[in-house]
What we know:
The complex is a heterodimer. By secondary structure, chain A is mainly alpha-helical. Chain A has 5 helices and no strands. Chain A starts with a helix and ends with a helix. By secondary structure, chain B is an all-alpha fold. A two-stranded antiparallel ribbon of chain B has the order 1-2.
Amino acid sequence: MKEGNESQAGWQIEDFHWGAIRVGYLISLSVTLLAGLPLFAATMNTWLLAPAGLAGLLIGGFVVGRRVGSKTAIINGALMATLYYLTLALAFFVASFLEVLPEPLPGLPQGDSTFYFAWPLAQFVIGVTGAAIGGRVATKNVERGA
Amino acid sequence: MPPDVPLVNDRLVMWVVAELHLLFAALVLGAPIFIVISEILGLRTRDGRFERLARETMKIVAISYSLTALFGGAMTFVLVARYQSLSNFIFQRFYPVFGLYAGLLVVETALMYLYWYSWDALAGRKGLHISIGVALNVVGTLTMVLMNGVGSFMLTPPSSIEQASLWQLMDNATWSGLNLHRFVANISFGGFMVALFAAFMFLTSRNREDRAFYDWMGYIGNFIGVAALILLPVAGYIYTKEIFAYNATISTLLMADKLAWFFVIQGVLVGFLFLGAIYYMWLSIVRISGGVRFRTYFRGVFWIALVSLTVWLIPQNFLPALTAKSPLPIEEVTIPGRAIFLGIMPAKGAAVSALILVTAFVYLLYKQAVATGTMIWGQIDTKAQLTLTFLPAVAVYTMTFMGAVRELARGEWHIFQFMADTSAEAYLTPLGYSATVTGLITIVFFLLMSGVFWLGFKVSH
């Protein structure tokens, strides 16, 4: 009844560290835009957005994990990666509705939606992995300091 | 079948026995993976509940094994008696495969009974007992892989069948995709069936200790079921992509022609699975001390899941029913211009990914609640246990329904573009008929499973 006792004692574990999530999210999006868009513009291949985005998520996830520590790293990393994906999905839906996106996107075959499955799932895995690594590093640093 | 039997025909009989065989086969293949892992966890953690879970589930597998063989035999009888040219061809060309299959079945049966009956005798030699369980799983998976080769061959045979070697027949365009899809689906199915059994036992138990155990068991079963379910759309996508690469006309028939609405129904069913899994977690997280604090996040997840599901279900076009008279000309029954993108694959892919991601997120949230709180087993809303019966019902219905779609994908062929189906029932069954038949198969399967649970755990006690 550890948690119950803690709740009864009048405090709760802080599960989500919104400051850390915000920083990780912004890093991920910035890297995607700063590295992904030039790559896309140079090759006109949408697939090249994916490695840039994944690199951003790895760094962003690491920063989140580093800031929150290993106990809550995974859920914070997962929330950051989910918000990142939902932002991209929303942008995609709005741009499609406004008819500013070509169909298919440059570099993607007609009728093939592999990109729309593979990239989001990889985002989640990489975001959570980055956070888990960051969390472990944070814990090790604390142990070393202690 | 005699022509004077009303409503019954060869295809219907084949359909029913084949799907019942496959459902029981999925159970006896999927559950042992779960069972051995539970036994290993029991050994490593010294938590006696894992051992009990493994043992009680194995009892269900042992009873169900006979039913698997029974429906497999019935399927073979119907195939040989009513589809002679097809069965002659299949048995001749795949003779070594069927020989190996028969041999593996003998080995699998021996291992299954050895594993089950040596449980007490090898209590002191757990390593050996677990090794038998692992061997059972390896042999079981091999038998599935062999029959997947034959099944996938019928849909995607190599271009020159007469000259092809046995290996070329087996290693056809969709063998790997079907293997992957069935393997993941069997684990998910095994998890959900364990959850079903646990819910059945929970709801019929009077003893508080038993209710606590079956609550835990349902939780474990559901967790495994959901974990594999999250991967299943990916495996399904890989499989469908292989079909598309083999022959785009099959995919067109499936996704954009007469079977397109079957996929809308599939979307409804898979969506129910995801929503049901989230709902169970939302209900049951309350019994974890401190878990209620996570409930806030579920609300947003539900909304995102619902919106994603809605996008998934928007059809690209509407096919007119030949018998119904539409009040509007068909060209006017369309999605508004700017929203037309919602009917095509990129939007659906993005929506399904969102559904998967938010489910994975609450799954991790639930794990976090478990890691930071204490579970009070047995104190769970009855609705959660009813959800654990709903999820397997939808999982079974999805399996039977999509199994039918896979068969219908061959169109008028027994073996695609090689051996025509010249029987009286060689036509695409309408959605209503297919949904009814697969629904009835699901009900029969549930009745049989209820009999298995009742026989194994109520009568024997």
